[in-house]
Amino acid sequence: MASKREDIEYLEYIFSKFYDIGANSYGGVTRLGYTKVEDDMHNMFKSLGEDEKFYTYIDEVGNTYVANDISQKPYYLMGSHLDSVVNGGRYDGVAGVIAGLLILKWAKDENLDIPIRVAAFRCEESSNFGKCTIGSGLITGELTKDDIKGLVSKTGRHIVDIFYSNGYSLNPKKIENVKQYLELHIEQGKVLEEYGIKVGIVTDIAGPRRFEISVLGEAEHSGATPMDMRHDALCAASELILELEKIGMDESYRKSVTTVGVINNGPNVLNVIPGDVTLGVDIRGIDTDSLDKIESYMKSTIREIMKKRNVEIFAQDTGRFDPVKMSSYMQKKLIESSEKLKISHKVMPSGAGHDAMAFSKICDTAMIFIPCYRGISHNKSEFSSLLSIYDGCKVMYEYLKGEQ
């Protein structure tokens, strides 16, 4: 087996192969799902696997795999995604994919007799189509043709046309023979860095509930309309935003969060009272009762604001996933592996969604977190050290050796 220095150099080499793909003038990368840039990322991943003489293949929805065994035996699947948000960072998703390649290389060098496959899943981010985990969701049955057939990309391309032009299937065969799924990912939060801990062992993945809120008032002249005669959609929306922040704070003890990440104000003119506003609301948590409470509070608040301000408000559910629990067996064994290696660990939930969510209903599933600088993610400043990726790989590989 190679030395630690050689392993870090290998990680640096394969990471560098992805570095400039999708790079933009702002210093970040834009690698949207089911675009040519994401194609380039997958082609590079496939090429890196072939360089090490591994098997490679692409499934019916465009997910790419590198494997040491492609028989019908149950196998251990690792992986993550290669797409990004607009002007995003270079570590989200990619860290998990290159970790899988290093672990495959270790298994080959040590003649580890265990079937392993590493996957790069398509379109994990919702940035291009407004829906996340498309590649992993379709092959696990979490998503169906009906869930995605109406999706349109940021450039106006229908996903049905994209699938057709690439020879992909909207009704793919369900993935088979996955014994366990294991994903390394940057934390996308500050906990590990703040506590000086090397790896996180994930207990749960928060379930998101997303809504598009339309607030309809009346656009009128800002100078000629008295204050007590207005139907200001933006003021009504602002009141709802602050109430969502309040209930999020109240429910934070149960690890729930609320975010309004999108505001579109119309007509967005200085001397016109806002007549229509659209909000994008993101509610997340690991406690279903807490999520139910927040959603109920949001809807009752909407009714109160409508009555108080004489506006119309409509809430459209645009997607939801239940919170997901990771395998207790795998958590226990990963803890034992980190302790054996004297790599510090913390048991913790994930506030962000991941491809692991899709696999949790078809096989035992686990996640390893590694620290990222100041918790920054979905941002050009996103950073995680190669040494952190290496530490996460060591824990995962130790776990796999124990599964022989």
Write out key terms for the chains shown:
metal ion binding; Alpha-Beta Plaits; Aminopeptidase; 2 domains; 23% strand; 404 residues; 13 strands; alpha/beta
Helix content: 25-40%
Helices, by number, come to: 12
Structural class: alpha/beta
Number of strands: 13
In the residues, how many domains can be counted?
2
Fourth-level CATH superfamily of the largest domain:
Zn peptidases
CATH class type of the largest domain? Alpha Beta
- CATH-derived topology of the largest domain: Aminopeptidase
Order of helices and strands: HHEEEHEHHHEHEEHEEHEEHEHEH
Largest sheet: 9 strands, mixed
- What is the approximate shape? globular
Q: Which residue ranges are poorly predicted, with pLDDT under 50 across at least 5 consecutive positions?
A: none
Q: Mean of the pLDDT scores?
A: 97
Alpha carbon gyration radius: 23 Å
Beta-strand content estimate: 15-25%
Ends distance: 18 Å
CATH architecture of the largest domain: 3-Layer(aba) Sandwich
